[in-house]
Write a sequence for this structure.
């Protein structure tokens, strides 16, 4: 069997090649952007709680920093590979490019399983990672952030180690910190609001008043909840919400044709976005199966739960009424389903663009840290609106002009911005 | 005196009575302190002081009889309203002390005299007895001093003075010492001693003969004369052969021993009742408030007898307990005993374990300061024979034979037996005992626990088989009495419940005469709002059988801790999670990300509602919002939830209504000595008892209480399984020798094998995801808990899908075993997940987890069976045909001529095997008696479950009217057809239906009736209840033509459905 195993980095390169073809990029630029600029592989010796030593492998991959300091998370994963980190660093480059923030793409990680590590040991890994790589990261070089199995606590350890080494305060060296410790307000809302900012602009271009639209949302976590809130504020009506019922281990959809009441639902929702079924029935909601959200007679679908939710099997169930799909989650649409959606002419706000509110807010965190002056929440969200709106306009204008599918347009605009920066710097 | 009216009056009254008693005792102590006074003055002093301690002093008179003389106050007359107590010195009664009321006074529930008054009188008698003894001993001492003064000491050894004095003061004891010395000389092989013993022997026997045979036999001589002479000879002989310091040492030991002789007599006499034993222990303790230095062997002898008589006859238990439990501990325990008159009962396993454990911890607290301050809740005990007494009193004597009835009948009758017991009355002496206990407890909530004698027999873990009931203990004393007696009666009735009887029958313990003792224990905790609860509670095990990281050793132990009552930690709950911790490795958490921690945190809390007088389960968040501020130590139990991480609660305190929080116990674990203490408790108990233990504990936020301790005896399904050996290689599917937990799954019919290489070669992300979805569909289709999942790397990995099949818990929740395979690639051995992504779900649902390392030396892995057996994936799920290289679904019996896969896992040996073998009936390992082999469900599984189901299915088919219902054909499939049905299995029926809607409706109605009836019958047979036993699937012609839905079962190559003949024969 001459098959090639699935490889995330190869897949990212294929995606890039497709975009590069659309842009007719020259070979040198392709060669530059197909691979990271720099890769660091480091060893982190840690004295374990039982006194023994264990050496952990760590990575930092800086895919491209032509547009500004690198930006990207640090993953703690037991089977981390360099290829995965490479692929994710490239994805970060495009993500920063599409919202036009002056940052490049990076990613890092450590091969470890936090389930097998005490907090003290994890702290030693964080500090050891910084000690090995302090010269290559920093507010003006490369800015790490939390990712898989790392959180604000890890970021604070890393920041502290960095500042100890440099003997200076650099809160902008890392993002994802708690509010009050160099974190930014508005981070909770950023992704969900960002989705709706782009939805609003898309509707404006379609000449549809948000107040005349209805939507169906998959997911009821952080992103979905804030998306619904802002959409409601615009006058839109969400008629169905799909959620995961932890107790019954099954997905369900709640529906109310006159529109769900967000605060009412939040009152009967647990901390994981699970809605209490019986109470929902009591409040007049219909309980449907987990896939029912996709077949609702609405104008807008917002998949905001997890990847691979719109598939070749269920794409046919999307109502003829649907005009817009806004991808709040990462990769909710499989390539097969994507083709069908493109053929049907449904307008898609691709994940790269629609859920870029998160990375934009991280950028704001870094900006605030660098000037050591922190904005009020309104100011953060106001600036987010400006960024997301102009990002949307850039992508949609390109799509219109070049007759591109929105997903392709998002990649094209992003890659072209990065390529342009490389040209301007005289790299290629 | 006015009669008390209100509750407050009653309280003041009883306080006043207590104060009077104490005053009286103080006065008597004052009198007895005067050693110079004459004995008569002392006696008159007591006679004068005593009445003040009684309820009605003005009519109370005291009379003391001493050495046949009577002493009494003026204006004395003997009446019928009296109590008395003997004055004893050593083992003999020298007199008595009596209290009279000279006129009739009102009676309470206890009679005219209060129990405290009876106790007070006994105390006074004891004190007077020991005073008299002290006086006579000091006379001896004075003689000795005088003798020393005369300087004779230089010529004679010290021991000779003592013996001389004894000869003059206590001849009987003098002879005893001589005899003991003689025995000693004989043992050392002194020949003269043997001659002496012959003479002594004949003399003693002649003495006895004289007693027995009376006047018919001539008395040869006055034995006393001879004995004195003989004794002198013995002493002389002793002085020639032994050092005088040696003799003195022995004589001193024997004198001490003599002081305990009455106690030894009482406890070693099998005929003495519990009351007599208790009285002897009490007297001994009163006589010598400071610990007497008894010779080691005497002390142990006493301990062993007491343990045997009052606690447990388990030799292993006694062997350990005798090292730790001293007489003073017994005295404390026995003062809280409720027992019928003439009781010879014991306390049973649970009480025994706690009693020993607390003594062990106390003993070791000097060397391990962390063990200091560990408490046990106040407990009263009801002896085991009280149950029999209770049944006797209510003419329920035939009830114990209940156990020989048919199990269905037992189950049917059980609810009535509960009612019968609850409506029965307790004998008066028990009512009195319970009332005393209740006075001692006050209105603190109580838990009534069973402590059965069968629990002693290690090997049969009766945990949870008998009831434990909580009693809120609120209201008037009468209400509280009734509630407590009601609870005791209900616990009694649980001996006759179907589950314990069935369990005993399976273990050959049915004929054991089961008696149940009861522990009435104060619930640890505090009042919070209208609730009562401990701040936190839980269970801990010496051995960790659920390791979530390869770094955790079995010896690191396991802790399950919950907020509120520990009930939620003891039982496995499918919808809630205790916080898990390995006390030896507290840094390694099961859950790491904030999301995991929140998902697997306790969501509910068990409490006692004092206003409603009942046990309740509340939502923990609602509860803490309502009254979190009042819960002691709550700041040690929670973490605050921030966007992506958890934070310590702020120093200023938590606003439960504003701050999102989660129960983590992190501060308790990280900032206090709690974990160190638990670990030390487990280690100390395990070392002392020479077996792994499990304990229950609780804390009121301030103190740590030990509630229970017993040998760690895993749940039936979690016991180490015997590992079959010497099987041919072809019998093995796999072996494992690392990170193995306990358990056995003996009846696996299907294996889902994700072939690691083919999985790794899947090209598209969609295919990789589809593997997970296909597993999810197989999970619903394959027989529940009869298939296993084997796959590469990390099941449920949420990161890189290449590392393992991406599934959620709902997609694997019917598997029996989840196996992760680590194939070596080059020199690199990948890490496995240990099921971390749904570890706690697996634990709570008893799904086994096993890591396999097929490439390691010495490991068997029958890859060719997995690769070459028929793959039925496409038959079951045609739409996943493209994955048939990666997913192999193997019907085990179809590929092995009817064999099944059995998985045995043994953590003690760190070994597990999967073997292909004949289904039960011909077990490859012969289960040894008392060494349970099988899984709990399997224990109840007997071949007739499927036979009965098949017979019922056939009967339905015979009874159906095909024309009336439009049914063309009927099949049975699944566990009923495969002969693997267990007690809770349903009956899967397929019906080919060609009728109209009306017929369909009445057919389903008819089937539903059958389903409910069969469910009821099955419940009576097995104790399992569901909402119906039939699982009916209607197939249309289209289904059959297209082979959709269950139609694939018809005529399938493997696991096909079996057609049932319809209509009357």
């Amino acid at each position: 069997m001459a098959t090639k195993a699935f490889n995330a980095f190869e897949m990212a390169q294929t995606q890039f090649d497709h975009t590069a073809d659309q842009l007719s990029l020259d070979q040198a630029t392709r060669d530059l952007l197909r691979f990271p600029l720099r890769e660091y592989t480091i060893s982190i010796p840690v004295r374990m709680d039982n006194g023994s030593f264990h050496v952990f492998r760590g990575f930092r991959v800086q895919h491209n920093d032509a547009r500004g300091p690198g930006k990207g998370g640090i993953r703690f994963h037991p089977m981390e590979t360099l290829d995965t980190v490479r692929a994710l660093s490239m994805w970060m480059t495009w993500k920063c490019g599409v919202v036009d923030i002056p940052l490049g793409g990076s990613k890092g990680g450590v091969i470890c399983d936090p389930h097998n590590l005490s907090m003290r040991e994890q702290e030693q890994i964080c500090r050891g990672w910084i000690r090995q790589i302090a010269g290559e990261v920093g507010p003006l070089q490369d800015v790490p952030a939390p990712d898989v199995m790392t959180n604000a606590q890890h970021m604070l350890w890393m920041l502290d180690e960095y500042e100890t080494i440099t003997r200076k305060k650099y809160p902008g060296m890392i993002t994802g910190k708690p509010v009050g410790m160099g974190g930014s307000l508005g981070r909770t809302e950023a992704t969900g609001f960002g989705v709706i900012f782009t939805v609003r602009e898309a509707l404006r271009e379609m000449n549809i008043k948000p107040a005349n639209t209805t939507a169906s949302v998959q997911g009821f976590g952080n992103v979905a909840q804030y998306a619904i809130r802002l959409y409601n504020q615009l006058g839109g009506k969400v008629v169905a919400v799909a959620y995961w019922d932890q107790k019954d281990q099954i997905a369900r959809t709640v529906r109310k044709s006159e529109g769900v009441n967000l605060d009412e639902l939040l009152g009967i929702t647990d901390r994981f976005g699970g809605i209490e079924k019986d109470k929902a029935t009591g409040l007049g909601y219909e309980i449907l199966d987990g896939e029912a959200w996709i077949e609702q007679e609405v104008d807008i679908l917002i998949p905001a739960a997890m990847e691979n939710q719109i598939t070749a099997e269920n794409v046919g169930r999307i109502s003829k009424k649907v005009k817009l799909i806004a991808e709040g989650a990462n990769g909710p649409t499989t390539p097969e389903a994507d083709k069908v959606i493109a053929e049907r002419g449904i307008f898609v706000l691709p994940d790269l663009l629609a859920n870029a509110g998160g990375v934009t807010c991280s950028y704001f965190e870094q900006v605030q840290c660098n000037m050591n002056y922190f904005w009020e929440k309104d100011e953060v969200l106001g600036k987010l609106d400006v960024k997301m709106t102009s990002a949307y306009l850039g992508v949609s204008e390109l799509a219109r002009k070049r007759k591109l599918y929105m997903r392709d347009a998002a990649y094209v605009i992003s890659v072209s911005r990065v390529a342009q920066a490389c040209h301007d710097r005289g790299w290629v | 005196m006015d009669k008390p009216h209100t509750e407050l009056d009653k309280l003041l009254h009883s306080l006043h009575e207590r104060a009077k008693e104490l005053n009286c005792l103080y006065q008597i102590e004052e009198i007895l302190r005067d050693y110079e006074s004459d004995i008569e003055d002392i006696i008159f002093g007591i006679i004068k002081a005593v009445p003040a301690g009684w309820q009605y002093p003005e009519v109370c008179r005291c009379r003391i009889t001493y050495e046949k003389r009577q002493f009494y106050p003026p204006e004395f007359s003997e009446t019928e309203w009296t109590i008395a107590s003997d004055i004893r010195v050593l083992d003999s009664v020298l007199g008595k002390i009596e209290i009279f009321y000279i006129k009739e006074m009102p009676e309470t529930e206890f009679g005219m005299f209060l129990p405290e008054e009876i106790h007070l009188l006994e105390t006074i008698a004891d004190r007077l007895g020991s005073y008299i003894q002290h006086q006579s001993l000091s006379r001896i001492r004075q003689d000795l001093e005088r003798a020393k003064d005369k300087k004779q000491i230089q010529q004679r050894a010290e021991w000779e003075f003592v013996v001389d004095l004894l000869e003059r003061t206590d001849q009987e004891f003098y002879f005893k010492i001589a005899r003991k010395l003689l025995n000693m000389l004989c043992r050392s092989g002194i020949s003269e001693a043997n001659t002496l013993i012959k003479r002594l022997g004949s003399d003693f026997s002649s003495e006895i003969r004289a007693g027995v045979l009376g006047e018919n036999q001539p008395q040869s001589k006055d034995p006393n004369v001879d004995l004195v002479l003989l004794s002198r000879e013995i002493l002389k002989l002793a002085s020639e052969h032994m050092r005088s310091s040696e003799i003195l040492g022995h004589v001193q030991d024997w004198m001490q021993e003599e002081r305990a002789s009455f106690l030894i007599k009482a406890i070693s006499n099998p005929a003495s009742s519990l009351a007599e034993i208790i009285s002897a222990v009490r007297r001994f303790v009163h006589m010598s408030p400071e610990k007497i230095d008894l010779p080691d062997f005497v002390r142990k002898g006493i301990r062993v007898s007491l343990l045997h008589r009052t606690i447990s006859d388990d030799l292993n238990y006694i062997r350990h307990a005798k090292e730790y439990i001293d007489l003073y501990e017994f005295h404390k325990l026995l003062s809280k005993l409720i027992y019928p008159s003439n009781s010879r009962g014991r306390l049973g396993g649970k009480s025994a374990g706690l009693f020993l454990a607390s003594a062990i911890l106390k003993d070791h607290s000097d060397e391990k300061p962390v063990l200091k301050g560990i408490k046990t809740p106040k407990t009263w005990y009801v002896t085991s024979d009280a149950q029999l007494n209770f049944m006797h009193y209510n003419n329920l004597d035939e009830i114990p034979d209940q156990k020989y009835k048919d199990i269905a009948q037992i189950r049917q009758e059980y609810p009535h037996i509960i009612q019968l017991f609850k409506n029965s009355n307790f004998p008066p002496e028990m009512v009195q005992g319970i009332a005393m206990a209740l006075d001692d407890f006050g209105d603190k909530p109580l838990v009534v626990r069973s402590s059965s004698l069968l629990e002693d027999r290690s090997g049969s873990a009766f945990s949870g088989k008998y009831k434990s009931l909580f009693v809120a203990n609120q209201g008037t004393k009468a209400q509280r009495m009734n509630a407590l007696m009601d609870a005791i009666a209900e616990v009694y009735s649980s001996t006759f419940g179907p589950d314990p009887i069935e369990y005993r029958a399976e273990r050959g313990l049915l004929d054991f005469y089961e008696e149940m003792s009861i522990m009435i224990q104060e619930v640890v905790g505090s009042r919070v709002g209208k609730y009562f609860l401990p701040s936190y509670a839980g269970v801990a095990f010496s051995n960790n059988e659920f390791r979530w990281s390869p770094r955790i050793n079995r010896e690191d132990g396991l802790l399950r801790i919950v907020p509120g009552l520990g009930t939620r930690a003891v039982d496995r709950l499918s919808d809630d999670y205790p916080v898990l911790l390995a006390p030896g490795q507290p840094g390694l958490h099961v859950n790491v990300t904030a999301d995991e921690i929140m998902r697997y945190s306790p969501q509910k809390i068990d409490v006692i509602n004092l206003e409603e007088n009942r046990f309740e389960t509340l939502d923990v968040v609602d509860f803490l919002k309502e009254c979190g501020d009042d819960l002691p130590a709550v700041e040690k139990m929670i973490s605050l939830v921030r966007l992506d991480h958890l934070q310590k609660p702020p120093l200023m305190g938590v606003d439960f209504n504003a701050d999102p929080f989660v129960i983590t116990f992190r501060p308790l674990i990280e900032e206090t000595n709690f974990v160190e203490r638990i670990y030390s408790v487990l280690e100390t108990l395990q070392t002392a008892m020479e077996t792994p233990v499990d304990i229950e504990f609780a804390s009121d936020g301030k103190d740590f209480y030990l509630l229970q301790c017993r040998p760690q005896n895993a749940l039936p399904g979690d016991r180490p399984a015997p590992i079959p050996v010497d099987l041919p290689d072809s019998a093995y599917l796999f072996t494992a020798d690392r990170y193995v937990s306990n358990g056995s799954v003996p009846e696996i019919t299907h294996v889902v094998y994700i072939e690691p290489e083919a999985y790794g070669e899947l090209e598209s992300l969609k295919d990789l995801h589809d593997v997970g979805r296909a597993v999810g569909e197989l999970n619903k289709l394959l027989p529940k808990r009869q298939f296993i999942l084997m796959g590469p790397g990390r099941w449920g990995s949420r990161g890189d899908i290449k590392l393992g099949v991406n599934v959620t818990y709902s997609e694997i929740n019917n598997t029996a075993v989840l196996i992760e395979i680590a194939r070596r690639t080059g020199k690199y051995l990948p890490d496995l997940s240990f099921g971390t992504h749904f570890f706690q779900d697996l634990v709570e649902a008893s799904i086994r987890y096993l890591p396999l390392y097929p490439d390691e030396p010495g490991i068997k892995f029958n890859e060719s069976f997995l690769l070459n057996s028929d793959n039925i994936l496409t038959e079951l799920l045609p739409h996943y045909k493209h994955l048939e290289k990666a997913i192999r679904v193997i019907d085990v019996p179809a590929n092995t001529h009817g064999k099944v896969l059995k998985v045995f896992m043994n953590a003690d040996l760190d070994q597990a095997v999967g073997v292909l073998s004949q289904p039960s009936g011909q077990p490859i390992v012969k289960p040894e008696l008392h060494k349970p082999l099988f899984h709990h469900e399997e224990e109840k599984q007997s071949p007739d479950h499927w036979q009965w189901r098949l017979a019922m299915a056939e009967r339905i088919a015979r009874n159906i009217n095909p024309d009336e219902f439009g049914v063309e054909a009927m099949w049975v499939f699944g566990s009923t057809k495969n002969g693997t049905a267990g007690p809770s299995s349903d009956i899967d029926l397929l019906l080919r239906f060609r009728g109209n809607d009306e017929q369909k409706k009445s057919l389903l109605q008819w089937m539903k009736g059958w389903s409910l009836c069969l469910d009821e019958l099955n419940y009576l047979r097995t104790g399992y209840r569901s909402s119906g036993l039939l699982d009916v699937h209607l197939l249309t012609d289209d289904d059959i033509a297209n082979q959709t839905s269950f139609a694939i079962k018809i005529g399938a190559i493997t696991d096909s459905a079996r057609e049932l003949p319809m209509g009357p024969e």
Observations:
- Chain A has a mean pLDDT of 93.
- Residues 184-428 of chain A form a domain with the Rossmann fold fold (CATH 3.40.50.720).
- Chain A touches chain B at residues 1, 3-6, 8, 11, 49, 75, 77-81, 84, 113-121, 146, 148-149, 151-153, 176, 178, 187-188, 246-247, 249-250, 271-272, 308, 311, 334-336 (CB under 8 Å).
- The radius of gyration of chain A is 22 Å.
